[in-house]
Amino acid sequence: TDVRSKLIEAFSKADGKFISGQEIAEYIGCSRTAVWKHIEDLRSEGYVLEAVRKKGYQIVSKPEKVTANEIKLGLQTKIFGKSVHYEESVESTQKIAHRLAGDGASEGTLVVAEEQTFGKGRLSRSWHSPKHTGVWMSLILRPNIPFHQAPQLTLLTAVAVVQGIEEATDLMPGIKWPNDILINQKKVTGILTELQAEADRIHSVIIGIGINVNQKNDDFPEDLRQKASSLFIESGQPVSRARLIQHILAKMEQLYQLYLDKGFTPIKILWESYAVSLGKEIKASTLTETLYGKALGITDEGVLLLEDNAGQIHTIYSADIEIP
Ligand code: BTX
C-alpha cells in the first residue's frame, strides 16, 4: 500500500539511524498511534525493528524475499526460471501457473509467492504456507510425453529437490514414495503435479513444490508439529530461499534434459538411491483399501510395487505410505 511504501521510504532516508515516531508520523501523514500500528505490521512481515525510548525506531533487518530479481541474480539455468512471476500473497501458486500456462506461458516459467492463503496438497488436502519462511512455487513444463508418464515428473522433481537441498545445506534428505521429502522422518517438502491435457496430449505439466525452509517449531500449527519440519529446524541455520530455489531449478533443468534424452531409467536409479521406504515393510492406504507388505521398488512408470504377506505383488498408483 501507499502508507507502507512511504514508511519504508522514511526508513531508507534515515539510512540505518533511529527515526522518531513523530518524524515518521509527519513523513507519512498520520497519527503516532497509527505509526505504531504500521510498525507492528512490518514486524509481522518479518522485519526486525528496534524501538528505543526517546530515539524512536530503527530497522535491524529486512525479511529475506524471493522476488524475481533475487531469484534471477546468479541463476545458472538456460530456461527454468528465466521468466519469474512473483507475488507477495496468493491463494495458490498452482492456480496462477494454470492460468499462465493456459495463456501460453513458455516452458520453465516459474510462479513464486511469499505466502499462500489456500496452498493445495494432493487429494484436496491443504498445504500450510506461511509468509516469508518457505518456498511456495510452481513450475510450468511442456514435455512431449504421453499422459501416463506424467507421474515420472513428480519423481524427477523429488530428486531435484533433494539434490538442491544438499547443495544449499549440510542436510541429507530422503524420499518417501511418491512425493514426500523427509528429514529425520519429518516432512519438509511436498510436491503436487497437475496436468493440462486433452485426450492423450499434454499441454502442460504444473509442478508445485512446497518447502519448509525457515520456520521454527512454533510456526507450525499444532497438528503438523509432530510430522513436519523445516530446513532451519533440522540444520540450525537459516537458509536463503532464493539460493535454494536457484539450486533446485539448476538440478531440475539438468535432470529434465537427461529425462528427455535418455528416458526415465537414469532418473529412476537416482530416485531409488534417495528412497527411504524401499525394502521395508510399509502400510499403503489407497482411496479404496489398506495394504501391508514390503516395498519392492518402482516401475518405469513410477508406480510402486508392494509384495503382501501372501507373496502377491500389487501395483500402487496413488496412496499414502507409512513406514511403521
Ligand atoms: P500431500 O497431500 O502429500 O500433503 C498434504 C498433507 O501434509 C496435509 O494434509 C498435512 O497433513 C501435511 N502438511 C500440510 N502443510 C504442510 C507443511 N507445510 N509441511 C509439512 N506437512 C504439511 C503435498 O501434498 C503437496 C504439497 C504441494 C504444495 C505446493 S506449494 C506450491 C504449490 N502451490 C500449491 O497450492 N501447492 C503447491
UniProtKB/TrEMBL annotation:
Belongs to the biotin--protein ligase family. Biotin binds at residues 116, 187. Acts both as a biotin--[acetyl-CoA-carboxylase] ligase and a repressor. Residues 69-260 form the BPL/LPL catalytic domain. HAMAP family: Bifunct_BirA. This is Bifunctional ligase/repressor BirA. It catalyses: biotin + L-lysyl-[protein] + ATP = N(6)-biotinyl-L-lysyl-[protein] + AMP + diphosphate + H(+). NCBIfam families: birA_ligase. Residues 21-40 bind DNA. GO terms for molecular function: ATP binding; biotin--[biotin carboxyl-carrier protein] ligase activity; DNA binding; transferase activity. GO terms for cellular component: cytoplasm.
